[in-house]
Design a protein that fits this description.
Blueprint (H helix, E strand, L loop, with lengths): L13 E4 L6 E2 L13 E3 L3 E6 L5 E7 L4 E2 L7 E4 L3 E6 L6 E6 L3 E6 L14 E4 L5 E6 L6 E6 L4 E5 L4 E6 L7 E6 L6 E5 L4 E5 L4 E6 L10 E4 L5 E6 L5 E6 L9 E4 L7 E6 L4 E6 L4 E7 L6 E8 L6 E4 L11 E8 L3 E8 L15 E2 L7 H5 L8 E2 L29 H10 L7 H39 L1
Parallel strand pairs: 2-6
Antiparallel strand pairs: 1-30, 2-30, 3-4, 4-5, 5-7, 8-9, 9-10, 10-11, 12-13, 13-14, 14-15, 16-17, 17-18, 18-19, 20-21, 21-22, 22-23, 24-25, 25-26, 26-27, 28-29, 29-30, 31-32
C-alpha cells in the first residue's frame, strides 16, 4: 500500500510565543532600511539593533532580563553611523561583532553579567571597507576569524587576534552582496548578489568554485546559505515577483535539485538552518509567519512541514544556537521576533510524551570550542566543528577575554592567544646572545605552563561544582 503521508518526526513541530512577561518590552527597534535580521542571540545574551540619535547602537540584554527595558539601559554605542548587522562569536559568548554605515567593523567584549555602563570602546576596530558594512559573519570552526562584506562589493576576512585584513576579495562581485554564508567546516563561502548570481567561493585560493546566473529571475533580494551536506539553499523571487526557494548542488549548478514557488508577498525571506535536524525556517521581513521545511534525500527534497502564524509583522529575527535550547521540553528551535517596540521569544517544540532525553532530536551539536586557531586556517587547514552532547543540558563555561595584539604597532596590550605567545617567544632566542637568557626563558615558560595547568584543573573543578549545583536546583 502506498504511504499517503511522509514519515517524519518533525511533522508535528509547533510554535508558541511566550507570555507577555517573558518578552523584552519598550525597545525602539532600528528603522534602517537594510535586510539583515537586526537581532543576534546566544545562550547568555540577546542583542538588538536599536534607533539611536547621532550614531549607531545596539542593546545587549542578559536572556533573563525580560519585561520593560528602561530607556536609560546601557547600550553598545561606538559607531558613528547606524549599525546594520551584528553577530555573536560562536566560540566566545561574550564577544560580538558589528558592521555599520560608518564603513567600520567593531568587535566588542561584553562583561560576564551584561552591561552596567554604556560601552563605547571596542576591543578592536577593523577598517578596510570604503562603503558601509552590511554583513558580518564569524568563521564556524576557527577562533578569531571574521568575515565582513560591504557595499563596496568587497569581502574581507580578518584575523581579529591581530586586527589584520588577511584576505580581500574585492573583484568577484560586480554589484551589491546580499548575504554571505560559511559552509560547515568554513572552507568555502557562498554569496548572493544583486547581479542575480549565486557564487561558491574558496576564500583562501581566492577563486570562484561554482556560480549560477539568474538563480532567481526576480529583481528583489536573494539569500543563499550552505547546508551541512554541502548543497546550497536559496530564497528569492520569480520574474512575476512570486517568492521562491531552491536547492542547488555546487558541483552542478545548471539546474536546481528543487525549486518551489511560495506566495506573492514582497518581504525578503531570511533562512535559518538547523544542521542537526535538517530543518530550514523561513522568516519573511514584514511577514507575520515562520514557515519551516525539512530537507531530505528523497524527492521533492524540500518538504513543507508547517507554518507558525501570529498577528504582528516581524521587523527582524534572532535565532538561538542549539546549545541554548531547553532539551527537557523537546525544544528544537527558539526565535526572537522583533516587533516595532518589543522582542518576543517564539519556541518551536516537537510533542513527545516521555520526559526522558530524546537523543533522536538532539544529536551531538557544535559546541563553543574552536577546532583551529586563526593561523592554522589561513595556512590551509580545515576542521569540522567540535561537537558536544546536550544530554545533561548545556552549561556555559568560562570565556577567555578577547585580546588583540597589533603587529608592527607598539601596543601595551597582551596577545590574542597565549599559544601564539609561546610559539613566538622561542623564535626570538637565536638573536639573544647569552645562553643565560635562554635558560631563564625556559624557566618562565615552565612556570607559565604549570600556572595554566592549575587554572585548567580549577576550571574543571568549578564546572563540576556548577553541574552539582544545577542538579540540586533542578
Amino acid at each position: 500500500m502506498r504511504r499517503v503521508v511522509r514519515q517524519s518526526k518533525f511533522r508535528h513541530v509547533f510554535g508558541q510565543a511566550v507570555k507577555n512577561d517573558q518578552c523584552y518590552d519598550d525597545i525602539r527597534v532600528s528603522r534602517v532600511t537594510w535586510d539583515s535580521s537586526f537581532c543576534a542571540v546566544n545562550p547568555r545574551f540577546v542583542a538588538i539593533i536599536i534607533e539611536a540619535s547621532g550614531g549607531g547602537a545596539f542593546l545587549v540584554l542578559p536572556l533573563h532580563k525580560t519585561g520593560r527595558i528602561d530607556k536609560s539601559y546601557p547600550t553598545v554605542c561606538g559607531h558613528t553611523g547606524p549599525v546594520l548587522d551584528i553577530d555573536w562569536c560562536p566560540h566566545n559568548d561574550q564577544v560580538i561583532a558589528s558592521g555599520s554605515e560608518d564603513c567600520t567593523v567593531m568587535v566588542w567584549q561584553i562583561p560576564e553579567n551584561g552591561l552596567t555602563l554604556s560601552l563605547t570602546e571596542p576591543v578592536v576596530i577593523l577598517e578596510g571597507h570604503s562603503k558601509r558594512v552590511g554583513i558580518v559573519a564569524w568563521h564556524p570552526t576557527t577562533r578569531n576569524v571574521l568575515l565582513s562584506a560591504g557595499c563596496d562589493n568587497a569581502i574581507i576576512i580578518w584575523n581579529v587576534g591581530t586586527g589584520e585584513a588577511l584576505i580581500n576579495l574585492d573583484d568577484m562581485h560586480s554589484d551589491m552582496i546580499y548575504n554571505v554564508s560559511w559552509n560547515r567546516n568554513g572552507s568555502l563561502i557562498c554569496t548572493a548578489s544583486k547581479d542575480k548570481k549565486v557564487r561558491v567561493i574558496d576564500p583562501r585560493k581566492q577563486e570562484i568554485v561554482a556560480e549560477k546566473e539568474k538563480a532567481h529571475e526576480g529583481a528583489r533580494p536573494m539569500r543563499a546559505i550552505f547546508l551541512a551536506d554541502g548543497n546550497v539553499f536559496t530564497t528569492g523571487f520569480s520574474r512575476m515577483s512570486e517568492r521562491q526557494l531552491a536547492l542547488w548542488n555546487p558541483k552542478n549548478m545548471q539546474e536546481p535539485i528543487a525549486l518551489h514557488e511560495m506566495d506573492t508577498s514582497n518581504g525578503v525571506l531570511l533562512p535559518f538552518y538547523d544542521p542537526d535536524t535538517s530543518i530550514i525556517y523561513l522568516c519573511g521581513k514584514g511577514d507575520s509567519s515562520i514557515r519551516y521545511f525539512e530537507i531530505t534525500d528523497e524527492s521533492p527534497y524540500v518538504h513543507y512541514l508547517n507554518t507558525f502564524s501570529s498577528k504582528e509583522p516581524q521587523r527582524g529575527m534572532g535565532y538561538m544556537p542549539k546549545r541554548g535550547l531547553d532539551v527537557n521540553k523537546c525544544e528544537i528551535a527558539r526565535f526572537f521576533k522583533l516587533h516595532e517596540r518589543k522582542c518576543e521569544p517564539i519556541i518551536m517544540t516537537v510533542p513527545r510524551k516521555s520526559d526522558l532525553f530524546q537523543d533522536d532530536l538532539y544529536p551531538d551539536t557544535a559546541g563553543p570550542e574552536a577546532a583551529l586557531e586563526a593561523e592554522e586556517w589561513f595556512e590551509g587547514r580545515n576542521a569540522e566543528p567540535v561537537l558536544i552532547s546536550l544530554k545533561h543540558g548545556y552549561i556555559p563555561g568560562k570565556n577567555r577575554d578577547l585580546k588583540v595584539v597589533k603587529k608592527n604597532i607598539l601596543d601595551s596590550k597582551p596577545t590574542a592567544n597565549k599559544k601564539c605567545d609561546l610559539i613566538n617567544v622561542p623564535k626570538k632566542t637565536p638573536d639573544m646572545a647569552s645562553v643565560q637568557n635562554e635558560a631563564k626563558l625556559d624557566e618562565i615558560l615552565k612556570e607559565i605552563k604549570s600556572i595554566k595547568d592549575t587554572i585548567c584543573n580549577q576550571d574543571e573543578r568549578i564546572s563540576k561544582l556548577e553541574q552539582q549545583m544545577a542538579k540540586i536546583a533542578a
